[in-house]
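Form 7-S
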Amino acid sequence: MANLWHPVRGVQIRDLGGKQFLFQFFHAMDMDRVLKGSPWTFNNHLLILHMLQCGEDSL
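Output:
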């Protein structure tokens, strides 16, 4: 996905298991662009994106 999104400051992707992944963007501009560009698919699977709020658990 990072190759598709071309984030200016980069993105870290972590596999949380259970078909869940955590995308950590290092610049708000990159995150906003990805969220506004949705819906996204990867290998014909729909990606559902949710921005975590402060104190919200990623699991």
